[in-house]
């Protein structure tokens, strides 16, 4: 016999009060620990092994910095903002994560999916404000200084929307929207950290994240096609943007700029070839080839000296100012306009950062604090939003490059920030003549990893069909409707799949493995022997209100007996029998004698006297589940069939006790509950 342990009842009120007293107390040591927990750099930096780590950190930081510059300029197209703001974002994110992050390897900064989500909100608000979304107008000439750039941004629009200054033009309004969105997203992330809501990320499965990334990649690819071929079409907004954009592309394909088409073809050929060679010979290369930087430098020189903008009307990046724009508090009224949009942005940014942090922490045998990561990425959004930056996240591609080039600690991020700072202070104006089609090529080639997910569909389908369906639905919704709606649809559809799986789980009758005390599915395995007079039923899911009917239908179908119908049939015959006996007729209504009728009342299909329910897969019972088991216990008892439960976990046993399944004093419990199927079968055989 197995006896349950008696657990000491915990006084929850006292526990809560003790925790409150502990959290509200303030000591010097606790204050010190709190500061060091909030700024992890104070813990690991004094222990930094300079001779061992510095070379790897410097090399990886330089390589990432070199990659960051062209990517930052390119991703500004996705965000609908000027390249200078992307550089600000890359600089501040690396510095703040160095101070607050717990992962040694992730690269936090500008990310294509986040840039796309920001760009969609910026475009929508610009359209509502009455601005033209066509960003292909020739840039204003200037020496790249902040003054000329600001003057060129002032338009004739007299804006009173959201309290913005009347002199604020399209660029000013766009970065105002982006910073407000970024600030609110950061606040959400910090609040989630305070209230420990990191569990939200558990609802974003790998299939949802992969599908979201693939669908968003298709949207990014579509948005860049107009730059590749040099046509001027309005930036589509709202649902179905992908389809509308492709329709506009084919309608205006005759206006394609031959110079941009040739440049794009050459750049894509060079970038893809270099990437493939880099992947093939990466074990021989000490660090990745800076192909994007080489392409940008060469393309800028060709565009400048070939005067591609003046001669062939090729669209170029325009003036990129040097230095830093004075900080500005994000507009509160704009925050109200984008508060809803900031929520999916905050969740996606956090989930990608934490999942990458955990993946590389596991690979390199150290631990991260998910809650601190939420604070880190939150402040990577809040603080830079005052400095004209937009939302950030960890990026897989750059993180892989960091690890492959010898990154050891977050010092690598500081080195990358210094490279970006060098561009911000001195080199930014040199990219004036850089063609936008070159930036579009860099973006499209960077999507190779996400687009390759299509090749994994057959293997994914072979492993799990439902996960594949979730991936397809999320990808389709993210691409064809919108990224935010696609993510929501993916989460809801994934939950529905889980509900359906528990609503219609596998059920089986079990047979005995010969010469053993083990039992398995009679439908799946051969050479199993049936147990005389005993049926063993397995239900492979929790028993609760949503699958109660399926449980009963499956039980009645597999045992070939519905006790309610059988009881009703018996009552019907008994009633008729009594009527005929009263009339003095010894022959019943069906023409049979009394003895023959009595024999017929015992149904032929009842070939068992005990039903064993294997509860090993039933993880919990709700009230409906307990009542269902009580119902079958009563119904089968009316047919003189005993119901025995086997392999119940303690939670299920407690639910049955509270529901009165074993009676008031639990006196019959030892005859109704067994810790193995075989014990239940032996007990059933011993019954008369």
UniProtKB/TrEMBL annotation:
Its main location: membrane. It catalyses: bromide(in) + chloride(out) = bromide(out) + chloride(in); oxalate(out) + 2 chloride(in) = oxalate(in) + 2 chloride(out); nitrate(in) + chloride(out) = nitrate(out) + chloride(in); iodide(in) + chloride(out) = iodide(out) + chloride(in). GO terms for cellular component: apical plasma membrane. Residues 524-684 form the STAS domain. The keyword Transcription regulation does not apply. Signal peptide: none annotated. It is found in: Apical cell membrane. It is a multi-pass membrane protein. The keyword Lipid biosynthesis does not apply. It holds the Pfam family STAS. Keywords: Cell membrane, Glycoprotein, Membrane, Phosphoprotein, Transmembrane, Transmembrane helix, Transport. The chain crosses the membrane at residues 53-77, 106-122, 173-195, 207-229, 249-273, 334-354, 375-397, 409-427, 471-500. GO terms for molecular function: secondary active sulfate transmembrane transporter activity. It comes from the Eukaryota. Belongs to the SLC26A/SulP transporter (TC 2.A.53) family. This is Sulfate transporter. The lineage of its organism: Eukaryota, Metazoa, Chordata, Craniata, Vertebrata.
């Amino acid at each position: 016999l197995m006896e349950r342990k008696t657990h000491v009842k915990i006084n929850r009120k006292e526990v809560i009060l003790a925790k409150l007293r502990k959290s509200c107390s303030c000591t010097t040591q606790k204050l010190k620990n709190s500061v060091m927990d909030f700024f992890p750099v104070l813990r690991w930096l004094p222990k930094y092994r300079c001779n061992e780590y510095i070379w790897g950190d410097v090399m990886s930081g330089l390589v990432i910095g070199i990659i960051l510059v062209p990517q930052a300029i390119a991703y500004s197209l996705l965000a609908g903002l000027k390249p200078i703001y992307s550089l600000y974002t890359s600089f501040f994110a690396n510095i703040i994560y160095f101070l607050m992050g717990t992962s040694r390897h992730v690269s936090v900064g500008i990310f294509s999916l986040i840039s796309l989500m920001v760009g969609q909100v910026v475009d929508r608000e610009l359209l509502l404000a009455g601005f033209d979304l066509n960003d292909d107008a020739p840039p204003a000439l200037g020496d790249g200084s902040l003054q000329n750039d600001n003057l060129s941004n002032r338009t004739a629009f007299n804006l009173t929307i959201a309290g913005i200054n009347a002199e604020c033009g399209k660029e000013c309004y766009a970065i105002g929207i982006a910073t407000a969105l970024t600030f609110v997203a950061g606040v959400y992330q910090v609040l989630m950290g305070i209230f420990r809501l990191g569990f939200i990320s558990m609802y974003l499965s790998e299939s949802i994240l992969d599908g979201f990334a693939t669908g968003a990649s298709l949207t990014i690819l579509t948005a860049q096609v107009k730059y590749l071929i040099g046509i001027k079409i309005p930036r589509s907004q709202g649902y179905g943007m992908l389809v509308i954009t492709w329709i506009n592309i084919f309608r205006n394909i005759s206006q394609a700029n031959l110079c941009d088409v040739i440049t794009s073809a050459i750049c894509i050929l060079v970038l893809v070839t270099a990437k493939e060679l880099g992947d093939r010979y990466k074990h021989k290369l000490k660090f990745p080839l800076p192909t994007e930087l080489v392409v940008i430098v060469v393309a800028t020189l060709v565009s400048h000296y070939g005067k591609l903008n003046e001669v062939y009307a090729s669209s170029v990046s325009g003036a990129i100012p040097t230095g830093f724009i004075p900080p500005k508090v994000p507009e509160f009224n704009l925050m109200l306009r984008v508060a809803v949009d900031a929520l999916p942005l905050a969740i996606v940014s956090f989930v990608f950062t934490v999942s990458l942090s955990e993946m590389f922490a596991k690979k390199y045998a150290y631990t991260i604090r998910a809650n601190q990561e939420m604070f880190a990425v939150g402040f990577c959004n809040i603080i830079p939003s005052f400095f004209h930056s937009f939302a950030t996240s960890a990026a897989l591609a750059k993180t892989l490059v960091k690890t492959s080039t010898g990154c050891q600690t977050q010092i690598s991020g500081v080195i990358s920030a210094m490279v970006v700072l060098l561009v911000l202070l001195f080199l930014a104006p040199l990219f004036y003549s850089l063609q936008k089609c070159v930036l579009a090529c860099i973006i499209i080639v960077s999507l190779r990893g996400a687009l390759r997910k299509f090749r994994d569909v057959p293997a994914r389908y072979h492993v799990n069909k439902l996960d594949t369906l979730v991936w397809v639905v999320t990808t389709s919704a993210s691409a064809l409707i919108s990224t935010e709606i696609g993510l929501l649809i993916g989460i809801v559809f994934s939950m529905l799949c889980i509900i359906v799986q528990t609503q219609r789980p596998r059920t089986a009758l079990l047979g005995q493995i010969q010469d053993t005390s083990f039992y398995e599915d009679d439908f799946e395995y051969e050479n199993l022997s049936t147990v005389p007079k005993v049926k063993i039923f397995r239900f492979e899911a929790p028993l609760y209100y949503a699958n109660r009917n399926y449980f009963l239908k499956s039980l009645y179908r597999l045992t070939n007996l519905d006790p309610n119908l059988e009881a009703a049939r018996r009552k019907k015959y008994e009633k008729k029998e009594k009527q005929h006996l009263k009339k003095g007729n010894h022959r019943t209504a069906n023409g049979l004698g009394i003895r023959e009728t009595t024999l017929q009342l015992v149904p032929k299909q009842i070939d068992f006297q005990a039903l064993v329910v294997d509860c090993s897969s039933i993880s919990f019972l709700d009230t409906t589940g307990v009542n269902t088991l009580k119902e079958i216990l009563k119904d089968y008892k009316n047919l003189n069939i005993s119901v025995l439960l086997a392999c119940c976990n303690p939670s299920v046993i407690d639910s049955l006790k509270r529901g009165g399944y074993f009676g008031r004093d639990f006196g019959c419990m030892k005859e109704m509950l067994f810790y193995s199927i075989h014990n239940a079968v032996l007990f059933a055989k011993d019954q008369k």
